[in-house]
Amino acid sequence: MNRTMNEYLKIDPWKIVEERFDAARMKSSESLFALGNGVMGGRANFEERYTGPTLQGNYIGGVYYPDKTRVGWWKNGYPEYFAKVLNAAFWIGVDISIDGETLDAAQVEVLDFYRETDMRRSVLTRRMRVRMRSGAEVAVEAVRFLSLARRELGVVSYSVTPLDRAAEIVFSPHIDADVRNADANYDEKFWEEVATEEDAVRSRTKKSGFEAAWAQAVTLEGAEFRCETTPERVRHRAAVRRGPGERATLYKYAGICSSLNHAPDDLVAAARAVAADGRAAGFEALLREQEEAWAARWHRCDIRIEGDAAAQQGIRFCIFMLLQTYTGVDTRLNIGPKGFTGEKYGGVTYWDTEAYCLPFYMATAGREVARELLVYRYNQLDKAIENAAKLGFRDGAALYPMVTINGEECHNEWEITFEEIHRNGAIAHAIRNYVRYTGDAAYLAEGGLEVLVAIARFWAQRITWSEARQRYVMLGVTGPNEYENNVDNNWYTSYIACWSMRYAAEAAAWVREHRPEAYARICAKRAFDEAAETAVWADIDRRMYFGEDRERGIFLQQDGYLDKEQLLARDLDPAERPINQHWSWDRILRSCLIKQADVLQGLYFFGDDFDRETLRRNFDFYEPRTVHESSLSPCVHAVLAARLGDMAKAYELYLRTARLDLDDYNREVGEGCHVTSMAGTWLAVVEGFGGMQVRDGVLCFAPRLPEGWRSLEFRVDYRGRVLTVRVQPGRVEVTNEGAPVEIVVLDRSVRLVDRIEIAL
Ligand code: BGC
């Protein structure tokens, strides 16, 4: 692998390792070493005081603040606020002083530094040897994790060892609830104190009224703690004396509970109980629980690559971050584009979830977890209908928001809020994807059909009949390629609109036939007249306009695309890339350069509808014009290149996604990691190199290895079984832990009992 960009982190198959202290990289490392347990998470801030540049971040999934919208030119239909998952109390704090001097890596001399995340068990370890201003040398070891087995527990062990002389060490474990978001629109503080007690603090979010409590329980051998708690700041203090080489270790157990799961008045008691139970179990036992819980997670989803150590670490990091971000235990939670690694994108939900993340969770966490993601949107259906009504749509048409946490739209750039409506199609596609992969068609009766009907109704109202063309057209949209706004007949949007209407009709027929009671209930609840509405949808589908260039044999991204100067990405001066940082916005809009997969996104989703030659022609035309300035783009192109057998291209594109954050290609990882695009990396491996697809209700593999890889092994959970696919040059082996299953390997149908091997 070409690692010219940034060879800062050590390559290791299971660990992320940093071997020196570089204050300039502090924020990047805080993102890369972030921890999460699916319901809460936080950046890898130091436990002890640090006065250098840092972005403090601790987040509780689902706890948000509606930050009043800030725009230059208000437009009707804009939302009033942008929901932000908040920076919450800093629970990890352990201040240290050595013979009266504060330990602060920005102020003392850092002699050695080592930090690692052990991805196998989600444990962050940091070791430092420092020379204090007094000249005293001390060694520090801090180990931290967010328990996966006990979702409200955070654990820290913090050791200090004087090295060259005896010293008095003061440990001050603390929780600081007086925190702010760096990205507050009006510099407001979002939290207000409810109560602070000796060992616990309870706060409430302004406006949204969420409450949370944090409590700490601490132990330190031979120490007596004194309480120094002040409003919003829980703090204990103990001094111990240690000789050279003698270690003092503080264990801190923090209970972190929110009103999502507890009555507000019970919060302090609940947080205290979590912390006390943690202390009673003890650090070592909790660590073992953590190892077991994570081993069980990895068992279903690990990917092994032999022959490319950097790619191995890259894909594990992506899987690890996804596992840390979302585990499907709570339908109110979802996958923010930056997960729990930073404030950007506000921790809220985008189409990224349906278009990119769902397949990962479906194939690694099982049907129930994947279903939670669909239920999230089902639960927000009425809000999506209200959202569409605000924009003038009626009769139960739904427009899902571009950005949301509770179902209300938060995005406020007109070209996206009102026009990037393809997101609705991704939500319909996710339902089909889920039903196709899991076989759980019953979901259509339980929620899927209602969502599909409401989406189809939206499309049926959003199109326009063109007298001139004698066709339906789709005016004024923004496709996935946000470097074009307000275009007509964006091929992808029109295609997914028609497809959504066809699928809604298919789903209605299935529910009518197989679940008549549910069908009757849905028709009554949603005033659904199947015959009349599906007839309209079918007519639109039949007479929809799709731009094509017959000579080139390609679909046209939108009307007028070929009028543009036909530049290719490779013709650009490298100094002008990314163009969004160098070109004026109008120049970008006028250019033919494409931010992210658009026509090709459609050919990826609906691959079965097109032959290989069509894919080839469109890929050859659009890929050179795509600048991939969204992290969600190269993975889609990688899958398509692999489907076309263009392995060198597939690998080149894969590299752009796999180590995007580890190697900080875009020099922006300090803001947080690209968590949703990590699911795209998984797609590039499993659907690209593994060639996994469901066709006609059967799971198919068509593996193809990039050059240099000695083997690729991945696991997927398929309808309750764990299948392990191991690909080596010339052969593929599939093993099955579970009931026998029909699969297709390279167009050969096989009944897989426990193991098969096939020559490639
Ligand atoms: C992309 C969108 C995406 C969003 C959040 C944008 O840059 O263009 O497609 O939904 O980031 O990841």
Q: What do you see in this structure?
A:
There is one protein chain. With 760 residues, this protein is of the alpha+beta class. It is built from 20 helices and 32 strands. Helix 9 packs antiparallel against helix 10, helix 11 (491-514) runs antiparallel to helix 13 (530-542) and helix 16 (599-605) packs across helix 18 (634-643). The chain starts with 14 loop residues before the first strand and ends with a strand. The model is unreliable at 1-5 (pLDDT under 50). The structure holds beta-D-glucopyranose (BGC). Beta-D-glucopyranose (BGC) binds next to loops.
Q: Care to give the gist of this entry?
A:
The protein is of the alpha+beta class and 760 residues long. The chain is 32% helix and 24% strand.
Helix and strand arrangement:
Blueprint lengths: L14 E4 L7 H7 L2 E2 L3 E3 L15 E3 L3 E5 L12 E5 L8 E5 L2 E2 L6 E10 L4 E9 L5 E10 L6 E10 L4 E10 L14 E7 L2 E6 L5 E10 L5 E2 L5 E10 L5 E11 L8 H15 L1 H17 L3 E4 L2 H17 L26 H13 L2 H13 L1 H10 L23 H4 L4 H17 L3 H21 L1 E3 L4 E3 L17 H24 L1 H10 L4 H13 L5 E2 L4 E2 L23 H4 L2 H6 L8 H7 L6 H11 L11 H10 L3 H12 L16 H15 L3 E3 L2 E4 L9 E8 L2 E8 L2 E7 L3 E5 L2 E5 L2 E5 L1
Parallel strand pairs: 26-30
Antiparallel strand pairs: 1-9, 2-3, 3-4, 5-6, 7-8, 7-13, 9-10, 10-11, 11-12, 12-19, 13-18, 14-15, 15-16, 16-19, 17-18, 20-27, 21-22, 23-24, 25-26, 27-28, 28-29, 29-32, 30-31
Helix pairs in contact: 4-20, 5-6, 5-9, 5-20, 6-9, 6-10, 9-10, 9-11, 10-11, 11-12, 11-13, 11-16, 16-18, 18-19, 18-20, 19-20
The protein binds beta-D-glucopyranose (BGC).
